[in-house]
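If you are new to this repository, start here. Below is one unmodified record pulled from the training split, so you can see the exact layout before writing a loader.
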Amino acid sequence: PFVGRDGRPLVAGSRMRAVEWLYPSTSAGSLRTMVGKALGRFVPTDLKAIEVAGAFPVRDEILYLPTPRDCVLRGDPPAAFATRPRSEWVGQSNLPQGLSPVSLGEEIQTDFKPDKLPAFLGMPLMEDWLNESPFQYPFHKNVPVLESVDVEERMHVAIDSTRGSAAESLLFCTAGLVLPDGFTLQLRVKPAGVVSGVHPLGGERRVALWRSAKGPASGWTCPDSIQKSLIASQNVRLVLATPGLFDDGWCPGWLKRGEVVPN
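And here is the target side for that same chain:
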């Protein structure tokens, strides 16, 4: 397991809490540190020039991305629905001006309890979702989905040899993310270089085996079907695969400057 910590300080007797997935800064920091060690020097400007995207799960050469939050699953009868902005509701919420609340379509006439979303979708499913093509639900074994990433907790203690019990202030719990069998992590690095060896990833100096991939998993480049859809569309739905921090926090600068009118 690899440890992706949240921002809470770890003190004696506390429980380390794991984030849902590694932040990009965690994988980028580990890679840049490994490169700096290999070069024998740490020049911040040179290391920051190394662009890192990910890490994301990969299995059978297919990239997996976090499931979009505009997806709603219903189990009985099985169906997958998309939430969309509803302009007629503008003014009925405390959203900033120009933004509309989202809801299911008018074809949904009955209330239901949504099923739990899978943690990651394989790129073929993500491509269908972005193209607004319905995909099959419930998911079957031949459909690329990563249902969940388990969290493994470990209790750490140091024994006081004189008393035979836990040493003072040295008892704490850590939580690590566990990838299912058959999955690896993959990052996209620019400029590309040869990377190999054992190096820590995440907190608690948990080590990982790093190597340069023979080829990128499918999904690192924009699929042809999405490019064609973008050319023919007036509205664009943007899904962030990693956390984003814009000029005004959640709001991209080009929205505030009025370059694009949101709905």
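Two things worth knowing about this chain: The radius of gyration is 22 Å. The helical segments are 24-39, 44-48, 123-130, 224-231, 253-256.
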